[in-house]
Design a protein that fits this description.
By secondary structure, the chain is an alpha/beta fold. Helices cover 36% and strands 15% of the residues. It has 20 helices and 18 strands. It has a 6-stranded parallel sheet with strand order 3-2-4-5-7-6, with helices on both faces. The protein has a 6-stranded parallel sheet with strand order 11-10-9-12-13-14.
């Protein structure tokens, strides 16, 4: 999207003035996002109503502010677009904080539009709703932009939008009271693309020097690789240097279908995979921060030289030597490595040894004796394997977090890194339903399935109503152990009973029916095999 005016200032001057409540929807329309997720309040209802009425965007309503933000995150992570959410100031913003922090941790391009607080031109809201939203946003690590009057709206909106799109971090857009009534003259839509950050040639040379001598390289993709959309380039590099490929947990299934894909690298790796990763002598990490989960708490890369391709200057390099950090757009950085390999006339190399298939990796986990008690329910590994075979291949998988989720990435496949989303953020449960709502809104032609625990589901269960309100098609699998299962082991060292961590669910069939859905309780594998899934799933 580019400006076609030879004199942008003259174009702005001649443009008809819009009131702010009409200008905000128009800016969102020009962004191309097309969807706004919101829990309404008096500070955002005028512009949301105007935008929905004019067709500037689809309004997806939620029953809680955290769901609005996590839905925008799920929309962004599965579509590649900037997710847009809006909540009202003070209590509304406070309710959204956990989901905003999770999105910040996961580097999700997201724009949260909120009214100013502390307010300087209060019209309706009582003063006691004031909250230091700027300070809280800074503490969360997200970006913050404030619009004091109508003349600042356009420039500040695009600054926040670009910050979300190109920094891969949520941005909060604070809109002062009165802006919705201020006159706003919008100019031509600015250039939203940007020049890619090109790599330093000397760093490229040093990295290929190392790759040329590698015998067991590994190409590791993280969230930055998803943002850069460089799977084809990474697979090309892997095929040239004879590397296996793997991904961080946040982008599980990024390399789905590649013959040398090991799946998840890190704390969640099956033993068979972890052993192979530990044999790597060079790791090319692209858009991955190499946090303790990815490195297996420093246990996986003990003998490897690490090459880190990163665009965020604030992201610390974890490279073994300074010259093996490559500050660059992921796609351009990988292309430069490929070009240097070819410039040297180096031939493609085969992968050393064999790579286990996805079926072999799954079997290695399924065969482990975990002491499963059949009286407590279905072995989840078997259940996930059944659903992997029965669910449509084009599915989008959303996973909440919890003790139950450890083996899900191994058994359940999806076609790529945007089709498999884990919503735990910085360790929070209960955000999966919101992410699934966003994914369903952004991908109406694909089946969306959510896996969550009973505890995580009940934390956000009110927003089953958002599925009804927005006529979404979504299948939810609740893994129910009638407990906060991850907490039970913490009671054992103290000799305390687990009763405090146990609870049962209400009648989930009746609960689903109350929201116009169909509910089924499954207690055996035979019942799961016979389950009639919804048309979308």
């Amino acid at each position: 999207m580019t400006s076609t005016s030879a004199d942008p200032a003259a174009a702005v001057e001649s443009a008809p003035a819009l009131q702010g409540y009409l200008a905000i929807p128009e800016l969102i329309r020009r962004s191309g996002t097309g969807v706004v997720f919101s829990m309404l309040g008096e500070t955002n209802v005028p512009w949301i109503a105007a935008g929905a009425d004019s067709g500037a965007f689809r309004f997806v309503r939620t029953r809680h502010e955290a769901t609005s933000v996590s839905a925008a995150a799920g929309f962004s992570r599965t579509t590649g677009a900037v997710g847009i959410a809006s909540v009202t100031r003070g209590p509304g913003f406070a309710n959204a904080v956990n989901a905003l922090k999770a999105a910040t941790h996961d580097h999700v391009p997201l724009l949260l539009i909120v009214a100013e607080s502390p307010a300087t031109r209060i019209k309706i809201s009582p003063f006691y709703q004031n909250l230091d939203q700027r300070g809280i946003t800074a503490a969360l690590g997200a970006g913050f932009h404030h619009v004091a009057n109508g003349s600042q709206l356009e420039e500040t909106f695009w600054a926040a939008y670009r910050g979300a799109r190109w920094n891969g971090l949520p941005q909060v857009l604070s809109v002062a009271d009165g802006v919705i009534d201020d006159p706003v003259r919008l100019g031509p839509t600015p250039e939203l693309e940007r020049e890619a950050e090109l790599p330093d040639p000397e760093s490229v040379t040093a990295i290929v020097d190392v790759l040329e001598g590698a015998r067991r390289p590994l190409v590791l993709a993280g969230q930055g690789a998803v943002h850069a959309d460089c799977r084809a380039e990474l697979e090309q590099l892997a095929d040239l240097i004879g590397a296996r490929v793997a991904s961080t947990l946040n982008v599980n299934r990024y390399f789905s279908g590649h013959p040398h894909n090991l799946g998840v690298c890190g704390h969640s790796s099956p033993t068979l995979v972890a052993d192979l990763i530990s044999q790597s002598d060079v790791v090319v990490a692209v858009g991955a921060s190499l946090n303790p989960y990815t490195t297996g708490k420093e246990s996986l890369f003990t003998s490897a030289t690490i090459v880190q391709v990163e665009i965020d200057v604030d992201q610390p390099f974890h490279a073994s030597r300074a010259e093996l950090g490559l500050l660059s757009d992921a796609r351009e950085g990988v292309r430069a490595l490929i070009a240097e390999w070819r410039r040297r006339g180096l031939s493609p190399r085969p992968v050393e040894g064999t790579t286990p298939s996805r079926a072999q990796i799954a079997a290695s986990v399924a065969d482990v004796d975990l002491g499963h008690d059949a009286d407590r329910g279905i072995d989840l590994r078997r259940a996930f394997a059944v659903l992997d075979a029965r669910l449509p291949a084009d599915r989008i998988v959303i996973s909440d977090s919890g003790r139950w989720s450890g083996t899900l990435p191994t058994f359940l496949d999806a076609r790529d890194g945007r089709s498999w989303v884990i919503s735990r953020g910085y360790g929070s449960i209960g955000l999966g339903l919101g992410n699934a709502i966003g994914a369903a809104a952004g991908n109406p032609d694909r089946p969306v399935v959510l896996f969550c625990g009973d505890g995580g589901f009940m934390m956000s269960s009110h927003d089953v109503d958002a599925i009804r309100l927005n006529d979404l098609d979504l299948t939810v699998f609740i893994v129910n152990d009638e407990a906060y299962g991850a907490e039970v082991p913490y009671l054992t060292p103290y000799g305390l009973p687990a009763d405090v961590a146990r609870q049962n669910l209400p009648d989930m069939v009746a609960y689903a029916q109350a929201f116009g859905a169909r509910g089924v309780v499954v207690r055996t594998l035979d019942e799961l095999e016979a389950l009639e899934l919804s048309p979308a799933a």
